[in-house]
Amino acid sequence: MFAVHLTVLKASIKTLLLIGMFATAGAGVLTMGVGMDTPWAPWERQSRTMFPPVLFTLASFVATVAFCATTVVFHTLLKMVTNNPDKWWRASGVLFLVAYGMFSFGSGTVEAAIMLNLLHLIVGLPALTLLPRAFPNQRNSSSSHLAVT
Question: How many domains does the chain have?
Fold first, then answer.
């Protein structure tokens, strides 16, 4: 089963990096270009310190690639339990965007929440459309391999 996940991750790496570049560009434009607030710094929970814009921009790339890689693994797991993993993967992605969109209003200021929602749309919409196309079309062989493993 581990080999199946690695195969799918390897096949989708270019798309993951492209979406990571979208995140970096979006975060850079929103925080450094437009000057929108960043969320509270996670290492300073007791104070109202905001994430530094340049660090937030760079962290957006790493976080996006890592999170999207986990969604690729999630998609391969969905292949084991459903005949239409793309539909369920997209539905769960939309639910995540809605839930995190509401949760982000606790991230500092209203401006930071709006910036995070815009950034998640910059990342989420391409991920929901581009990633399923990048997955290898091995529905039958990977499902049978997953069932055996």
Answer: 1
